[in-house]
Amino acid sequence: MTIPLAMFESPTQWMVVLVIVLLLFGGSKIPEMMKGLGSGMREFKKSMNEEPEATKTTDEKKPE
User: Fold this and answer.
1) pLDDT, tens digit, for every residue of 32-52?
2) DSSP for residue 26
3) I need a surface site. Which of 1, 15, 31, 37 has the fewest CB within 10 A?
């Protein structure tokens, strides 16, 4: 079984990929994309740590 990122075995192959990404998106777009990716990951981690609303309401007992 191989790791998908292992298909790039040499630094030259990584450099070619980086050049293609720079040509496609441009130097100014890449920081914006990374910022969006970081905020998305932060939101995902935050939602994973929060308790779902359904469990919160079922655990609370209402006085009768």
Assistant:
1) 888 999 999 999 999 888 876
2) -
3) 1
